[in-house]
């Protein structure tokens, strides 16, 4: 169980690393989705390296599918960051996975990061906005043009007011897969053991929540589709250098 909750500098992040990766086909038959290869290193190594550069000192990996491969590679630490594993015995969805992983954390506000996206937002600025506005959740939003793969997020005066279904759009904001979350946000709702963070919490209970948006034009990539995985293999090694081999 966690130690006393405090509001110190936000140095903890939950990484949602339990996805099945079905859209990647045979690539993820034998490995967990975040372990797909990028220039000889797993994608998750790039993501954790970036978290380290943003001051994260504890990464809690919410894992399920083939999680043992993640544990074998990263062990209990990575580049000075403590690594913990919140293992789902049954599929909990993104929301249930985050709620379970909170037991490994101490702080009042936690970062939650998708394990299959890389978004170079400045974490300290997200935290400052999140706390100054006393938000329940602050989403890092990526402006995008000519897209249909993602749902859109409506932002008015810094506050998220609507989540729109996937359809082709000329421009809009998308959820970039990084959020600051107050650990008590789940307490006010009756939620199932397994639930979606976006659909069952954010979309369903948006009128009862104070959700902000932090807009950033920073580099973003989602490795959930083969064509984007190929692009990540071309681009990420030039953007961020990661340690060779298993840090252990």
Give the helices and strands, then pairings.
Elements lengths: L11 E5 L20 E2 L2 E2 H11 L4 E6 L3 H8 L2 E2 L2 E7 L5 H9 L7 E6 L2 E3 L3 H10 L4 E11 L4 E5 L2 E6 L4 E14 L14 H7 L7 E5 L4 E3 L3 H14 L9
Parallel strand pairs: 1-4, 1-7, 4-6, 9-13
Antiparallel strand pairs: 2-3, 5-6, 7-12, 8-14, 9-12, 10-11
Helix pairs in contact: 3-5
Structure write-up:
- This protein has 248 residues and is an alpha/beta fold.
- It is built from six helices and 14 strands.
- It has helices at 43-53, 67-74, 93-101, 123-132, 197-203, 226-239, and strands at residues 12-16, 37-38, 41-42, 58-63, 77-78, 81-87, 109-114, 117-119, 137-147, 152-156, 159-164, 169-182, 211-215, 220-222.
- An eight-stranded mixed sheet has the order 5-6-4-1-7-12-9-13. Strands 2-3 form a two-stranded antiparallel ribbon.
- Helix 3 (93-101) packs across helix 5.
- The longest helix is centred in the C-terminal third of the chain and has 14 residues, at 226-239.
